[in-house]
């Protein structure tokens, strides 16, 4: 899935000629210095990255993808600092309900994450915590509001994941350290309402569980168990 997001650009500019960054999931990496000219390098990196059906193994992605053309900038990667990411469908031009619900849900998620010390705003790159981002349209009107949760393996040292937790800090020059497995789970939920947010944080984000699977679960993956459902 390719999606626009409200994640800030490195220089805060909306000029597409300036380098930007991309968040690659489920690899849980931030790709820096992306410009139209090095799209092929980005595609090569995506091809090498884990997918939702890949086994849960340590990352082997390079720190830098060099360009053989000196006129084309190289791209570099670094681990995403968060333990989990919440993506909110927010494209008002496609569905007015999404444009209205996403800001409300973000405020409600923030309200429940802050007392836990887990909320991270758009410019907060402290390790751990939860990033909450807007993305462009997913799914249909009748499923709004749509929420997608990505969790690192054994996120927050609780939940269902069976692999032992290891260091996930930045290595030299932002490289992945051994033990960075990316996202273990992706959970796509529909018809999320503000009153659902507390349990969504408590059970889905922190523990990888779905509270209302019959009504809200749209799909997802679990790389630790080797299962997918879309």
From TrEMBL:
InterPro entries xref list: Aim32/Apd1-like, Thioredoxin-like_sf
Sections of the chain in a coiled coil: none
Region feature (Disordered): 159-179
Pfam families: Suc_Fer-like
UniProt name for this protein: Actin patches distal protein 1
Source organism (scientific name): Fusarium floridanum
């Amino acid at each position: 899935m390719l999606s626009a997001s409200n994640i800030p650009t490195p220089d805060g500019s909306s000029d597409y000629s300036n380098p930007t960054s991309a968040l690659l999931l489920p690899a849980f990496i931030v790709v820096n210095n992306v410009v139209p000219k090095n799209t092929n390098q980005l595609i090569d990196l995506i091809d090498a990255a884990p997918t939702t059906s890949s086994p849960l193994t340590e990352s082997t992605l390079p720190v830098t993808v060099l360009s053989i053309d000196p006129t084309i900038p190289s791209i570099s990667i670094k681990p995403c600092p968060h333990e989990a990411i919440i993506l909110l469908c927010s494209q008002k031009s496609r569905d007015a309900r999404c444009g209205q619900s996403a800001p409300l849900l973000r405020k409600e998620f923030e309200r429940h994450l802050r007392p836990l010390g887990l909320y991270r705003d758009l410019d907060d790159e402290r390790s751990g915590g939860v990033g909450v981002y807007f993305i462009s349209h997913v799914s249909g009107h009748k499923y709004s509001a749509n929420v997608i949760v990505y969790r690192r393996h054994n996120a927050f040292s609780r939940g269902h994941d069976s692999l032992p937790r290891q260091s996930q800090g930045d290595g030299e020059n932002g490289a992945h350290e051994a033990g960075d497995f990316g996202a273990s789970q992706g959970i796509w939920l529909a018809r999320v309402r503000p009153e659902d947010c507390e349990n969504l944080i408590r059970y889905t984000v922190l523990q990888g569980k779905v509270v209302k699977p019959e009504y809200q679960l749209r799909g997802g993956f679990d790389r630790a168990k080797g299962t997918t459902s879309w």
